[in-house]
């Protein structure tokens, strides 16, 4: 079912500051920046590695305002891991399979994720307390990431 | 520097219950179980994928007692992501490089990690609030994981 750990997402107060930090201490490179109004975040993807199942990234998330999900997360927990995303071949199929096993889906249908992906979130309480995202890469990227 | 996202570690109250959950909902398989007295945890590695840079896993951690680091984490935050680990070719070298950039190391020298690996932790406050582990796989596993 899972083809890769797609990304680990970190909530932060200042995206540019954290990009500079991660580039400097871990020698990572930003491969995409995006503003996702729907999710209320400004984000960057830092490339870790490519594999047969697609790429792995660190995602940095800065909330667009305090009353967004990531803004509320920061106010409550401070900076740190916000969610973890796993690559799947087909997000709709994976939602059906995992949902059919009693895991609550936070999305009724896939929505727009980073770099043209289709994504859906699972309820953290049904998955060991980890906010979990399923990611289907943009079709043209499937299997051509390295 | 980073060859892979080695694992995402989840702190839990009941290891066997969570293993059964993750096997059932995500079709994952346990490839190693271990008791690490030094770190005060009972743990399991669930295999996600192999790549040129080594394997990626979900690690489940149950504290051996409430007064261990993971026991205290659970009491304070509840179940969820405890740390994230990145694979490096040489953990001592990576500690030197990252430490030289002003990141505090929680370990003075590498210690024993899962499946015969050598590991070291970085101070979360210096790394965006994410407790971060560096992992050098057991020598015989390097590049032979798939």
UniProtKB/TrEMBL annotation, chains A, B:
<dbReference type="InterPro" id="IPR051785">
    <property type="entry name" value="MMCE/EMCE_epimerase"/>
</dbReference>
<dbReference type="Pfam" id="PF13669">
    <property type="entry name" value="Glyoxalase_4"/>
</dbReference>
<dbReference type="GO" id="GO:0004493">
    <property type="term" value="F:methylmalonyl-CoA epimerase activity"/>
</dbReference>
<keyword id="KW-0479">Metal-binding</keyword>
<dbReference type="InterPro" id="IPR017515">
    <property type="entry name" value="MeMalonyl-CoA_epimerase"/>
</dbReference>
<feature type="domain" description="VOC">
    <location>
        <begin position="4"/>
        <end position="137"/>
    </location>
</feature>
<dbReference type="InterPro" id="IPR037523">
    <property type="entry name" value="VOC_core"/>
</dbReference>
<protein>
    <submittedName>
        <fullName>Methylmalonyl-CoA/ethylmalonyl-CoA epimerase</fullName>
        <ecNumber>5.1.99.1</ecNumber>
    </submittedName>
</protein>
<comment type="similarity">
    <text>Belongs to the methylmalonyl-CoA epimerase family.</text>
</comment>
<keyword id="KW-0413">Isomerase</keyword>
<dbReference type="InterPro" id="IPR029068">
    <property type="entry name" value="Glyas_Bleomycin-R_OHBP_Dase"/>
</dbReference>
């Amino acid at each position: 079912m899972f083809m890769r750990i797609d990304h680990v997402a970190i909530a932060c107060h200042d995206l540019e500051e954290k990009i500079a930090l991660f580039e400097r201490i871990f020698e990572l490179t930003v491969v995409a920046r995006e503003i996702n109004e729907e999710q209320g975040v400004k984000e960057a993807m830092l490339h870790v590695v490519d594999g047969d199942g697609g790429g792995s990234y660190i995602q940095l998330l800065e909330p667009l305002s305090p009353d967004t999900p990531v803004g509320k997360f920061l106010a409550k927990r401070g900076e740190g891991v916000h969610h973890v995303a796993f690559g799947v071949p087909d997000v709709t199929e994976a939602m059906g399979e995992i949902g059919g096993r009693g895991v609550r889906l936070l999305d009724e249908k896939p929505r727009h994720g980073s770099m043209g992906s289709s994504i859906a979130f699972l309820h953290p309480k049904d998955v060991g307390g980890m906010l979990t995202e399923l990611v289907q890469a943009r079709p043209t990227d499937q299997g051509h990431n390295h």
